[in-house]
Each structure stands twice: as structure tokens, then as C-alpha cells.
Hints:
Blueprint: E1 3-6, H1 17-35, H2 49-60, E2 67-71, H3 78-87, E3 94-98, H4 103-112, E4 118-123, H5 130-147, H6 149-154, E5 156-160, H7 166-174, E6 177-180, H8 194-203, H9 207-220, H10 222-237, E7 242-248, H11 253-267, E8 269-271, E9 277-280, E10 283-288, H12 293-302, E11 307-314, H13 330-333, H14 340-357, E12 362-367, H15 372-393, H16 401-413
Helix pairs in contact: 1-10, 1-15, 2-8, 3-8, 3-11, 9-15, 10-15, 11-15
Amino acid sequence: MAIKLDLRRLEAIKSTDHFKILKDKALKYAKEIENDNSIGFTHLPETSRYIEDAETISLKLPDGIDTLLVLGIGGSALGTKMIANCFGEHLKRRLIVLDNVDPDTVKSISKKINPQKTCINVISKSGSTVEPISLFKYFFNLFRENLGEVEALKRTVITTDPEKGNLRKLATSFNILTLEVPQNVGGRFSVLTPVGIFPLYYAGVDVSSILRGALKQKKEGVEQAITGSIVDYMFYTGGKNIKVMFIYSDRLYTFGEWYLQLFAESLGKKVKKNGEEIRIGATGVLAKGVTDQHSQVQLYKEGPDDKLFVFFRLEKKHDVIIPPAFDQDKGFSYLTGKTFGELMFAECEGTIQALENDGRPVILYEMDEITPENMGRLIYLFELQTAVAGFLYGIDPFNQPGVEEGKTIAKKLLGYN
């Protein structure tokens, strides 16, 4: 397969009775999830409608647009950032994803864009998420001041609930171009909806291949997903309450950011589905290979044995050869002729083996190369794995009551009643 899961020294757990019992449960849960129409993410790989919608909206936008400004947060932004970071040099339009309200960043971006050549895509499923709404108010006003209201409206696309919410009302009142977020797909599972499909399509990413990869993973990769979910479950319930993700690819680093939201919001819960208080959920930590070998591994190797380590690396890279320089010194000459890909592989393998030598649990994912199809596979693999893990824990992996409470308090502090 394009994505391989290597359990390393943990392979023996697959032959245990405990693993076999969990595998039967996980297979059952995976089928339930994929057949439940109220869980919409499993049906997205077979849905071409959102690509067609993206094409329709794109044709309605003014000519000459060279920048797309996406205003969202969490699941409304991280999936797009993930894919854009993988294929940035191939984009036909500049894609800026603004997912924070830091005034320094807002001001900086406002100076970098030309309203005449920029389209705003504001994304909020509820239609009232405070961060994208505040950013939308700011940038729309900037466009209106520069171009007038009519032209500013022509350069605006709203992605929101098909029926309700403040953004839906606004779109109807001002006849703004809109895209629909399916009601049965939560924000952190929404990258394969118009939330991600439109900005990526408009920027020039091959979104058809992303969906094709997700569909292949759905058909071929269920066992891979449930194995990952069982490993998560077994090691968390066995005392490993921290999950460290070591990403050995700068282009894949934003995949880690996307996954940690999916992981944290889905699996960090106070109560089970039956109402029993449980207070469950591992803490996710993102580490960059090789950078964080020098900042974190000392703790991981010699500190508390409370972590599961998940490594990601690529088999194929655009490689660069280390040239001959200062070879009169043996401390330099051994590197001559090697590639940076070989160096990164050695660094990754060295870190894995160092952790294994201290009995730390390590698993490894390898992707043959970064392509749109493989990214579709990666998205579906970890969405299904996360959902199945939630079912194993007996929790609802699709709600997020803890996040909602914080949003409500923030609105009250800003004077919303």
C-alpha cells in the first residue's frame, strides 16, 4: 500500500487474545460507522458534488484573482493548511489561511494582499464562530473601502450550514456566493467537504485525486485503521497517556497539526455515551524530525515511561546531495556524496532504535511519496481510525462540549447576550 504501518517491536501484540478480541469489536464498529448516514465523513470519498460546486463558484468570481484568503479556525482551516503546505509550489493561486486573531498577523496580511485581486472565503459551519466572523468583518470592510461594496461582495464566498446560522442569513440578504457544509459532518472531519475542496480546487490542487485516494483507503485500508485504533486503545489503557507524533517531513508537519485536533477533540471526553463520567483522552504532542530530537528526546528516552511514539517518514523525496567541502577533515568527509534524504532516514532510524533500546513503544508509518492521492488516503485513514478508537472507548467521538463552553464564555466577555 501507499501508506504502510510498521508496528516494529510491537508486532507480537497482534497475536494476543486481547488484541484479537479488540479487533473483532473494532471491525464491527468500523462497519457501523461506515453504514451510519448520520456520520457523514465516510460518504465523502464517493461524493463528486462538492468538486462540481467548487467549479461553479470559481467561474462566478471576477477575473484576475491571484490570491484566496481563507478565514476559518480549527477544522475550518487545518485541513486546507495541511494540503496547501504539501503542494504550495504547485498552486496556481496564492492561498493564505488565516486561523488566528493575533492583531499583528491580521495587520501584516492586510498589507500583503491586493483587494482587487483577492477573494475572501469565510468558513463557519454554525455561522457564528467568533474568530472567522471578526476576521470577515475586518477584511470585508478593507475591501469595501478600496473597491466599494458591490465589488467587495463579488469577491466573497461564504461556506456554512445549508439552512441556518448568521452567515446563511447574511448570504441570503446580500446575495453572496455560498457553499454548504453538510449537516452530518463535523468541522474536524470536514476537509473533504467544501470547507477544503473549494479553496484547494480554486488554488489549483488536484482534489479529484484526493477523493480518489480517500476512496481507495476506504475500500482497502480498514484493517490498517482498526489496527491503529487498537494500538491507541491498548497503550492508553495500559498507562501511556501521551501520544508523541514525530514527523520526518516538513511538508507533512501540518498533517500533524490537523491530526492532533482530530485526535484531541474526538477522544478527549468527560463522559461515555451512557452518561458515565470517564475523563478519558491521551495528550497529543507534535515533534518535528530532526529538529525535536535535540529538544525532546532526552526526556522521551530517560524520563517517565508514559508515552506512545508514532513516527512518520517518506520513502521518496526530492533529494539533495551533500557536496565535497572541507574533506581534509574526517569529521566532514564521511558525509560527502550522501544525500539529505539518507541523512534524515538515518536520524529517524537512530531515534527510533534509541527509544526501543529503552523499551519505549514505537510504531512507524511510511508513505511512499506525497501526492494528492496519498493525502486522500492519509485523511481517510486517520479519520476512520479516530472514530473507531472513540467507539472502543465507549465515547462519542463526534461531539465537542468542552470547546463549545469556551466559545460561549468568550462571547459573553465580548458583550454578546
